[in-house]
## 1
Amino acid sequence: MNHSSRVRRFSLLLAETLGLDDRQLRQLSVAANFHDIGKIQVPSTILNKPEKLTDDEFRLVKEHPEHGVRILTPLIDDPAILNAVRTHHERVDGTGYPNGLKGYQIPLFARVIAIADSFDAMTSWRPYREAMNQPEALDEIRREAGTQFDPLLVEAFLEAVARNNAQETLALR
């Protein structure tokens, strides 16, 4: 399973905990699956660089949400999906990108994807760092509640992961 598939899975896990309806789940599924499609416009040497990115390299990475919207616009006529792709790197404290949106200015789908994306990134190996284990990543998500992530969604995500872990444990018996 690749990064986008896992982000989709974690996003839907959270969305089901929030009680989103079937239409919203379908929209979120598409947005999560394509959230990083704009990275095809970023050189792989930058995406896979083991060292810290230069300011210019990071500027190129930060353009991927807008690239994604440009790629998807001819294919998808749903503002909720496109806005989620565009804003999934916004932070609730207003320091994210591309627009520095804050709090509830950030669409719900983007706030959901931000948590799922970060959780998957933290628990996956990257050229520049080892993967965290699940408890470490959940602690980091918890610490970023109110700065990077919506605190209410963080609590729902923690609940969703705990419930999912319990179900997986039961299925193994």
## 2
Amino acid sequence: MMRCAGDVLLTRDDRTLIRCGTCGFIHVHPPYDPAQLEAFYRNEFGESTPSASWADKVWNVQRMKPGGRVLDVGCWEGAQLELFLKAGDWECTGTELNARAAEVARRKGITVHQVSLEEFVRQFHGQVWDVINLAYVLEHIPDPAGLLRQLRSFLAPGGLLVVEVPNEFSPMQRAYLKARGIEPYWVALPVHLNYFQPETLEAIATASGYDIVHRESTFPMELFLLMGEDYLGRPDVGRACFGRATQMEAHLRAYDPAALSRMYSKLYEAGIGRALILYLRPAAGQP
């Protein structure tokens, strides 16, 4: 077992959040018991956060892969796979631990296997997919780099792994903390165990045997906070801000989806955006 150590960013309950010099990214320490985490996600966790940018993810994927088999690991209610189905030429499969979410996805006509990550690796050994989507998973699990390494064997030759995670401790978030004199509001234990920035996400991706094909972020919702529209703890304000962001994206997407992609690629380079998205392929010489 690795001995994790690093600068302590904050202490909450009986856990600390450290910038780990061993793992290379920010994570909770000491770790939670894996069995407790599995029980939490199987029975209690009830969040649903589909993104308006997921249509752009399909557009980006189809520039590199026009069709084939797509697997969504941790598909929740199947929102991303719905968009692949509508795009055509995709055979869609999902895995989801939460029974209620899996049933919602099945009602949409999606094949969903209600299994843990460990069970998936055992049951589907030898199967491959052209595209694997891994959205909002790495921040929840004890060993994100280990999962990335395991997923290489489930990719067909030339296949794509698309990783999406929240962008935490970003410049805009830290600017807001400084202005308000508050602690990081995005730290949520035990829901989020790991916290990534562009450089740390890229580091574990390349260390896990991948080449980075494309990088994008998503709309920086913290921009509204810095402009005085405080949506924290105010769902009505949050919905209004989100609606304005998605309206802007819809107009730009209708005009030129490539322009939207270019904009978010540039924001990624600056470390700005609510989420980070990497498009990966196994590096040469990797199985």
